[in-house]
Every structure is written in structure tokens, then in C-alpha cells.
Design brief:
Elements: E1 2-3, H1 4-10, H2 16-24, E2 28-30, E3 33-34, E4 41-42, E5 48-50, E6 53-54, E7 62-67, E8 98-99, E9 108-114, H3 117-124, E10 132-139, H4 144-152, E11 154-156, E12 159-161, E13 165-172, E14 177-184, H5 191-198, E15 203-211, E16 214-215, E17 224-226, H6 229-241
Parallel strand pairs: 9-15
Antiparallel strand pairs: 1-4, 2-3, 2-5, 5-6, 7-9, 7-17, 8-9, 10-14, 10-15, 11-12, 13-14, 15-16
Helix pairs in contact: 1-2
Length: about 240
């Protein structure tokens, strides 16, 4: 049994303090009865409603991971290769979180992990148009004509692929490479690599630097942090606005 406000906070309904305020305002019901006592405790089989809407008591977990290269974006690998779950601390490995979408084995950067299926769907379905930003360095000097081709989009393997945004950041003539920033909203399998392969430039390094409004600030490569409640709510809010 746990205090009602703690259960509400764990389910990301609101912060503990805000949950206490909602209980005091008579907005929370347990098994059909309005609860106003802050000391009230509930079990996992109790039906809790906030403003008439049933909540899921399962504690929602959200991690922002700075994935290194050479790590699989999956919870388990039959071949025993290193996965993103292997990067978690021992106490976090049994929490049954899963990657949101994927980030290639040879790519690095932001990857979200969660057990929230609803948010995962919102962040990965193309209709929500969630932005993912990448820093991409390719071999060779990319000429203006080919940058225009990328901006207009290309049909590859029968599928039209077009970045939402692409900008050339640097021409490194000494090392014969070109640096780009690219924003995608769909993110098909190996889309960026295929786009550059179509103009005959191989990707050297690829790092996802932004997922919607989330960045890598403060998170070293191979490390992770929990998302704050306001960040989770902001992710939900952004996907909701995309449909209005």
C-alpha cells in the first residue's frame, strides 16, 4: 500500500505537491469514492480516477541516454552483443524499459528509454512529426548541386525521402570531409546514410543531438538521466498540438 499522492506522482499525473492539491480539491476518486485525506493509501488493484479519468498505476520510467557507437538499440540480443540496457546501472536494468525507436549500431547520441507505450507511439509515429536533429560528417566535399538534391528529396528503393531541414556547416578540405546538420521527422531505417549514399558520399560519423526539445546537455557519452515530469508533459503536449 502506498500513499495516494505518491501513486499519482509515480504515474506522472502531477508532482507530489500538485497531487496533494488535487486530492484536497476533491478531484481524485478511489473505487468510486472521492478522497480528500492526504494520508489515504491505495493498493495496485484499486481503481483511481482523476477528474473522472482512470489512471494507470504502473510507475512510468523515462531515461535520456547518450548512446555510444557499437551498442544495439534493443533490450536484448540473441547473439550476446552489447545493448543499451547493458549501459544502465544494476538497479535500473530490471525496470523493463525499451528504446523509443532506434539509433543505428554505428550511430551515437540521444536515445529515449521508457515503459510508457502511449508516449512511445506518439514519438515514433510519423503523423506526430517529432523532430530529430543529427550532426553528420561525410567523406568527401559535397558540392552545392548535391545539397540541393538532398533538400528536394530523393526516391531511394522506391521510397521518397526528404529531410525537414538540412544545412552544410563545414567543408574540411584538408581532411576531405563535409559536416551537416539534418532534421528528420520520420527517420526511416538508415535514412540519412541512404540519402548520402545516393549522392556518392559515405557517412563517417552520425550523432543525434536533439529529440524534439531534448538535448545531450549534461549527459556524457554512455551515461543517462531520468526525464523530469515537466519534460514528459512537454513531450505529450508537443505531440498533442501536432494533431490540432
Amino acid at each position: 500500500m502506498e500513499r495516494l499522492q505518491k501513486v499519482l506522482a509515480n504515474a506522472n499525473v502531477a508532482s507530489r505537491r500538485k497531487s496533494e492539491q488535487m486530492i484536497s480539491e476533491g478531484r481524485v476518486a478511489v473505487n468510486g469514492e472521492i478522497i480528500s485525506s492526504l494520508g489515504y493509501k491505495v493498493g495496485k488493484n484499486d481503481v483511481i480516477k482523476v477528474d473522472g479519468k482512470t489512471i494507470d498505476q504502473t510507475k512510468k520510467i523515462y531515461y535520456l541516454l547518450n548512446k555510444p557507437t557499437g551498442v544495439l538499440s534493443t533490450a536484448k540480443d540473441e547473439k550476446g552483443r552489447k545493448t543499451v540496457i547493458d549501459l544502465l546501472l544494476p538497479e535500473d536494468k530490471d525496470k523493463r524499459v525499451y528504446p523509443v525507436g532506434r539509433l543505428d549500431y554505428d550511430s551515437a547520441g540521444i536515445l529515449l528509454l521508457t515503459n510508457d507505450g502511449d508516449l512511445t507511439y506518439r514519438l515514433t509515429h510519423p503523423k506526430y512529426e517529432v523532430e530529430k536533429e543529427y550532426l553528420v560528417r561525410v567523406k568527401g566535399i559535397v558540392i552545392r548541386k548535391d545539397v540541393v538534391k538532398l533538400r528536394k528529396g530523393l526516391k531511394i528503393d522506391g521510397v521518397f525521402m526528404k529531410p525537414k531541414f538540412i544545412q552544410l556547416l563545414e567543408l574540411d578540405k584538408k581532411n576531405q570531409s563535409t559536416l551537416f546538420v539534418i532534421v528528420l521527422t520520420e527517420g526511416r531505417n538508415r535514412e540519412i546514410r541512404k540519402l548520402f549514399e545516393s549522392i556518392h558520399h559515405e557517412v563517417k560519423t552520425l550523432t543525434r543531438t536533439r529529440y524534439d526539445f531534448l538535448t545531450l546537455d549534461g549527459v556524457e557519452r554512455g551515461r543517462y538521466r531520468s526525464l523530469k515530469i515537466h519534460e514528459v508533459k512537454q513531450l505529450y503536449g508537443h505531440t498533442q498540438r501536432k494533431l490540432t
